[in-house]
Every structure is written in C-alpha cells, then in structure tokens.
C-alpha cells in the first residue's frame, strides 16, 4: 500500500464530515431564525415567473425591493454597488404595515426598538441623468416561496389580486427568512425545519 492510498480514505471521511457539518449549520441557522427572529408582515407585489425545474413555487415581490433615489439619503446613492449589502430600516406605519425609513450601505447604529433592519443585496442600480432620480433594486433572499404541488397557480393569482402578505422572521443582524404567508386573511406558516 503506497502512502497516497493510505491517506485517501481518512481524507475522504474528513471532507464528508466537514460538508455534513456545514449543511447542518445552514439548516440550524435558518431554523433558529424562524423560531426566534422578530416577526413582521409585508404586503406582496405580483411577480409571474416560470421555472419547470424547481417545482411549484411562487415568486414574491415587495415594495421595499425597489427604492427610488428620493428614499436614499442625499449623496449616498453612489456608495452602493451591485452585489454589495444594503441595510433597509422599516418602521411601523399607522395602517399596521411597515414603511421604509432609511437605507444604508452599513448596518445603522441607532435604531429605534420599534423599527426593524433588513439586510439585502443590491441587485441592480439605475441612475438618472439629473442625479436626483434613480432606482436601487434589492434582493433579500425572501423572494421565493415553495408551495404544495398544484397550488402555485392559485397563489400566483391571489398575489396578482393583492390578497397575500408575507410573514418574515428577522434576526438581529438583519437577515430575514420567509416564515409563511397570510392568504385572504388566513395565516399559513411552514412547520419548523427541526
């Protein structure tokens, strides 16, 4: 037996254990966020994609996914870059929902206890010629919701009719997980992962 084959099996077992531990950590972190994250509910905007390889799912859009330059603090639009993080602070509004109060490329320092910070990634940016107009397109990782087989089209039609809200669990670091949906006023929450 040569020295290379002597180390092959222990190395293979070590790699398999590391991969298993990494997968467990991902599942554990998501489950912890769903169980202990602060819960908020956001209205969903209609989006209608198709993907035959991913099964039944609904793609969700949010008002907080597309911010006008007027919602970005003066002079800080150019601090954002595609693929970079963006931290959106939402505050409770009088109607019982959530409204964007600020956006920043860094986690905000002084956040009111009533407010929630959501971490996003800059997906696209468009800057108008005047410098005062533009759009910051953000992705939060909560845009896809998998549903039981055969129910995707029904939910998509309800999204178009504006009858769905998303239930989010938000961690202290701004990470968000899609916990469930409110469909026609009825709450549908996924069971915990563990």
Question: What overall form do the CA principal axes indicate?
Answer: globular
Helicity, as a percent range: 10-25%
What is the gyration radius calculated from CA atoms? 20 Å
> What's the overall average pLDDT, rounded?
82
Q: Helical region count?
A: 2
Structural class designation: alpha+beta
Tally of DSSP β-strands: 11
**Which strands sit side by side, in order, in the main sheet?**
3-7-6-4-5
* SSE string, helices as H and strands as E: HEEEEEEEEHEEE
Largest sheet: 5 strands, antiparallel
Spatial gap, N to C terminus? 44 Å
Strand content: 25-35%
Identify low-pLDDT runs.
none
Describe this structure in words.
The chain has 194 residues and is of the alpha+beta class. The model has no long low-confidence stretch (mean pLDDT 82). It has two helices and eleven strands. Helix content is 22%, strand content 35%.
Question: Mind sketching the topology for me?
Answer:
Blueprint lengths: L2 H34 L1 E6 L13 E3 L6 E3 L16 E8 L5 E7 L11 E12 L6 E6 L4 E3 L5 H9 L3 E7 L5 E8 L2 E4 L5
Antiparallel strand pairs: 1-9, 2-8, 3-7, 4-5, 4-6, 6-7, 9-10, 10-11
